[in-house]
Amino acid sequence: MKASVLAPSLVFVFGLGLGLGRSASAFPTGEQFDGDALTSDGGGGIAFDGAPRWSAHTCATCHTDAPGQIGIELQADHAELFTDGWKAGTAYHLRVVLQNEHEGLGAAGLGDQCGGALDPYKPCDYNGYAIELDDDSGKPVGKLAPVVGTACAGSGTVPSDVDTYVLKDGTAAMHNGAHMAQTKWDLCWTAPAAGVGTITAYIATVDGNGGDGTASFPNDTVGDDVAAGAVPLAESGATVLTPQTGGCAAAGDAGLGLALVILALAALARGRRRRLVIALALATAGGCVHVHPRERETLARRNMKFSPDTTEDELDLHMQEAREGSEGGYGTAGGGCGCN
Amino acid sequence: MQLTRALAIGLALLPVAAHADSSFESKVQVYADSDHTQVVSPTVQAQADVTPETNVSLGYVADVVSSASVDVVSQASKITIHDTRQQVSAGLAHIFGSLTAHGGYSLSHENDYLSNTFSVGIAKELFEKNSTLALGYALSLNAVGRAEDRNFSRSLTVNSVNASWTQVVTRRLIGQVTYELTNASGYQASPYRFVPVRASVDAAPSEWVAESDPDARWRHAVVLGANQAVGADSAVQGDYRLYHDTWGITSHTLGARYFTRLSPRLELRLRERFYTQGAASFYQAVYTTTQRYMAYDRELSPLWSETIGAKLSYQFTPHFEGELKVDLFYYGYSDFAPLQSRTGTNTGLGITLTY
Prior knowledge:
The structure holds 2 protein chains of 2 kinds.
Chain A: E1 7-8, H1 31-34, E2 71-76, H2 80-83, E3 91-99, H3 105-108, E4 127-134, E5 143-148, E6 151-152, E7 165-166, E8 173-174, E9 184-190, E10 199-207, E11 225-233, H4 254-268, H5 271-288, H6 310-321
Chain B: H1 4-12, E1 23-33, E2 37-51, E3 54-67, H2 70-73, E4 81-96, E5 99-110, E6 113-126, E7 131-146, E8 149-170, E9 173-186, E10 194-197, E11 207-210, E12 216-230, E13 234-245, E14 250-261, E15 266-277, E16 303-317, E17 320-333, E18 341-354
Antiparallel strand pairs in B: 1-2, 1-18, 2-3, 3-4, 4-5, 5-6, 6-7, 7-8, 8-9, 9-12, 10-11, 12-13, 13-14, 14-15, 15-16, 16-17, 17-18
C-alpha cells in the first residue's frame, strides 16, 4: 500500500524523560520486548507504549532526558477511521510516523550499512516504536499483525525484513529492528466485534542517536528523543467521539464555536446582561472543559504559548507603546496549558 | 529624550513564571523609520531554576537612540539628538502547588528620566489545570527631567492592575481574556515639545506654548486571544484588543501569528498586526488660541498602522537556538500636519541557550 492513500490522523505528541542510567540498554529488536527482564535484558512483555495497563509507562521510562522535539502521526488507509470511527471486523492498514527526527541523522544516510559488521564501526540510526489499541477498560482489543507486501500477515512466518513485531500475546506491536533509519512503520489492525465502544491507540516512539558512537553501546538509552501519545477512535455508528471527557457541550471542536458565540454575545450585550454573559462564559469554560494532562502534549508546545518569546515581546511592546496612544493588556500571561 | 515610561510598565506586567529549565538570551533589535529615527536595542536576559519551585531572572536592556524626527525638529533645537536608556531588572517566581507567585523590580535610567517599577502577581491553576486565573499589580515611580535644565522636575506615578483568565478549550485550542486597568497621575507631556498657536495649518505661529496634557489618565484594555494548533506542528494565534482611556482615545488592535516548521530544526513565524485609534479629546491639528490642554503629539492624533513580519528560528542543538526577524511597518496620520506617514523596519538577531 502506498503512503499517499493513508489518511493523516490527528496526533502530535512529545515525550518526557524519567530516570535510568547509561548502562541501561534499549530494545533494538521486537523480541526483546518479550524477553525476560532478568535473564535476557528484555522487557518482560511490557510494550512501554503509554497504555494504562503499563501504568502509562512509555519509552521515556528508560530513554531519559529526552528533549521532546519529535512527534508522532498515525495514518490509516481508511480515512473514515478518524472521522466516522472504526467498523467491526475491518482490517486497517495503520502507519506510525516519527516526525521531526533529529537524532542520529549523521547515520541516517547509511541506512542498513552500519554497525558492528563494518570496520571501522559506524553507528546506526536506530529508531523504534510501539503501539497497542485498548478499549475503555484498558484491555487490548482487535488483532495486530505485520504488513507483508500489501496484505496483513497471516499465521505463517513473517519475512525477516518486515519491520514490525507483535508481542507473543498479540496485545501490542513494535519495531523488530529489521532496518535502520526507519521513521515509518506499517502494521495491520483488525477491529473487534461491534459494541466495544471507543478504542484508544497508545503510541510511543524513540528517535535514537546511535548509542555512544561505539560498538560498546550501539543503542543505549541516553541522548535519544521520545514521543508518546494517545488517539481515541470512536466506534462507527456509536456516539460521536469527543476527545475530552466530562460530557460537556464545550468540548471537542464544538468548544471553539461555543466560545466564539459566547464572546460575540458578550461583545453585543450591555450592562448587566453583558456581565451575565461573561460570567456564563467563564463558568462554561472552566466548569465544563476537561482536557487531561496526558492530552496536553500539543498544548505544551512553544508555539501554543501566548507569549512564546517574552524578550522579543517586551521590545516590540516598547516600540509600539512609544508610537501609539494605547498601551496595556498584553503584559499579562495566564498559566497556559497548566502542563508544568 | 524620554523613553522610559512605556517599557518600564510593559516589563512590570510580564510575570516571571517558574520554568522547567534555565536559559540565557542575547538579542539585538534595530529600529529604523522614514522619520529619521534609529534605535538599537541590545538586551540580555537570564533565568534559572534555583530550586524545582523557584525561578530567578535578571535582565538588561538598552535603547541607543538617534533621531531627527519631526518631534525634535519642531521644537527649538533643530538637531539630531542622541540618547541612551539603560534598564536592569530582576524577578523571582515561586510555585506553591497550583499557585505561582512572582515579583519583580526594574530600574530604568536615562539622562532626563528615572523610573523604578515594582510588580507582584499570582497565577492560580483551576479545574484540573484546565483554567488559570492570573492577577497582577504594578507600581511605577517616575522622575521626569529636562536635559540642560536642572530646574525642571516633574513626577509621574503609574498604578496598574490586571487580571487574566486562560482556558484550555480543547487539546489543540487555548483561549485567554485579559483586562488591565492603569491609572497614571502626574506629568505626562513631553518637556521638549512646544505647540504652535496659529490661525491655520499653513499660517506662521503667533506663539509656541509648552505642551500640556491632563495629569490624570485612566486606561482600560481588554484583550481576547486564542491559540489553535494546526496540522502536526503548526499553530495559529490571533488576538484582539479593545482600548479606551479617559483622554478619549479608543483603539482597536488585531494581531495574528502563524508558526510552522520548515524542517525539524527550522521554524518560521509569520505575523501581522493592524492598529487604529481615534484622537484624544483635547487634540487639535491646529490650535488657534491657547487652551488648558494642548498637544503636538502624533501619538494622540488619529492614526493607523500595519505591520507584517517574518522570523526564522534555527535550532543548532537542542540547547542552542538562533533567530533572525524582520518586521515592516507603516503608520498613517490623517490629522497631524508635520507628518502624514512613516514607514520603517524592525530587525532582530538573537541567540538562546537553554540548559
